[in-house]
Write a structure and sequence with these properties.
The strands form 6 sheets. Strands 4-13-16-15-14-17 form a 6-stranded antiparallel β-barrel. A 4-stranded antiparallel beta sheet has the order 5-12-10-7, with no helix packed on it. The two termini are 57 Å apart. The chain has 4 helices and 23 strands. α2 packs antiparallel against α3. The relative contact order is 0.20. The chain is 28% helix and 35% strand. By secondary structure, it is of the alpha+beta class.
């Protein structure tokens, strides 16, 4: 009796174990999303961080050495084009320029006197010729008047040349004076000033990098230069629209336009070969103040589709497959699709799916595979 009970117990346990092992798996809770329509863009992004740069930036240095006499600006000052920034001691050159300008005035007065005399002698010559024609004047007198008129004309021309000479001398003095003055080649903001009043400033010798006297930045025109992989750069053209994101403004994106593509490939050791691409900012919002040197990333939009069937890129399986529901709505099944444009957010569907069709977009559940029985669970906030 005891043996029989033991056999029955073993048999029952084996049957229970077999049923437990062979029972159908429980349905997997999943959330499905509907295929929608919208815009899809083909994007090319930089491989390493880019940098915000100014369209105009000059590291200004003096053309000659000398003692700094006046500093007209400080760091952060905004200046207009042509504004005087720094000046060396130049009192001697200013005096020489004033002397040259005075010589211009003297030469001008001398010319006026000589040329007026020439005009008077010309009128006298005409009168004498008329008298000679009427036989009221001798040939000797007419010859003397002609010679005098010609000498007066030459004196007028000589005085003109002296005025031109005086003006050229003044230009030379002005050029020498300008070498002691540092002026802004464009409107901008002073980023750096190297030097103090009383210090001796020296020009940069050829081939030797020295700090600039004034670092001037045109902050009204900014762009981003970023490296693009050489393979991706082949599809970029100037004029293409782009988006710019910056670490300093993490939650915002700014529009821009490709303004330049480098005509050569950067071949740096232990780095992928890249092409520098410049993106010029469009109109920036009034509340955004960008600084030269900010790190930035770019996305160049090489192509786009409007109002096309699309799915989240994360829903796409290897081999261009997606997971959909079977006809009875209880089992997952694979569905092949034909894709078009794609980026890391959206993928265009050319064939295989229709708008409104349900697909599995979250593939983080390892049990949610083709053939698995499923139970639909609504997204939080959605009606079941």
């Amino acid at each position: 009796m005891t043996v029989k009970k033991a056999l029955l117990a073993v048999t029952g346990f084996a049957a229970l174990s077999a049923w437990w092992l062979l029972r159908p798996p429980a349905p997997v809770d999943i959330t499905m999303a509907s295929v929608s329509t919208g815009n899809v863009e083909a994007l090319v992004a930089n491989t390493r961080s880019g940098t915000v740069r100014a369209c105009n930036r000059s590291r200004l240095s003096l053309a000659m050495g000398g003692q700094v006499s006046k500093l007209h600006v400080d760091q952060g000052d905004k200046v207009a084009a042509g504004a005087l920034l720094l000046e060396l001691w130049n009192e001697d050159l200013k005096a020489s320029l004033q002397q040259s300008q005075a010589q211009i005035r003297i030469a001008g007065l001398t010319r006026d006197s000589a040329c007026r005399k020439a005009e008077a002698d010309t009128r006298e010559l005409q009168r004498q010729r008329e008298l000679f024609r009427k036989e009221l004047s001798s040939a000797e007198q007419l010859d003397r008047i002609e010679t005098s008129a010609e000498m007066s004309r030459l004196n007028c021309l000589q005085a003109d040349a002296q005025v031109a000479q005086a003006r050229a001398s003044a230009l030379v003095q002005r050029a020498r004076l300008d070498q002691t003055q540092l002026r802004a080649p464009f409107a901008g903001v002073v980023a750096e000033v190297n030097g103090e009043v009383g210090e001796y400033a020296t020009p940069s010798p050829p081939g030797v990098a020295t700090p600039p006297a004034i670092d001037l930045i045109d902050d009204a025109c900014l762009y981003v230069r970023a490296p693009i992989d050489e393979v991706d750069a082949a599809s970029i053209r100037t004029g293409m629209p782009a988006r710019v994101t910056l670490d300093a403004f993490r939650d915002r994106a700014f529009t821009g336009t490709v303004s330049r593509i480098a005509p050569y490939v950067q071949d740096m050791e232990r780095q992928a070969r890249t092409v520098d691409v410049d993106v010029r900012f469009d109109q920036l919002p009034d509340d955004v103040q960008l600084l030269v040197g900010y790190s930035a990333d770019i996305e160049v939009i090489t192509d786009h589709r409007d109002n096309t069937v699309r799915i989240p890129t994360e829903a796409l399986l290897e081999g261009n497959q997606v997971l959909t529901l079977s006809a009875d709505g209880t089992t997952l099944q694979q569905q092949a699709v034909t894709i078009g444009l794609s980026n890391w957010t959206w993928t265009e569907i050319l064939a295989g799916l229709e708008e409104g069709q349900k697909i599995l977009t979250r593939l983080d559940n390892p049990a949610a595979v083709a053939g698995a029985r499923v139970t639909l669970v609504p997204e939080p906030g959605q009606q079941p």
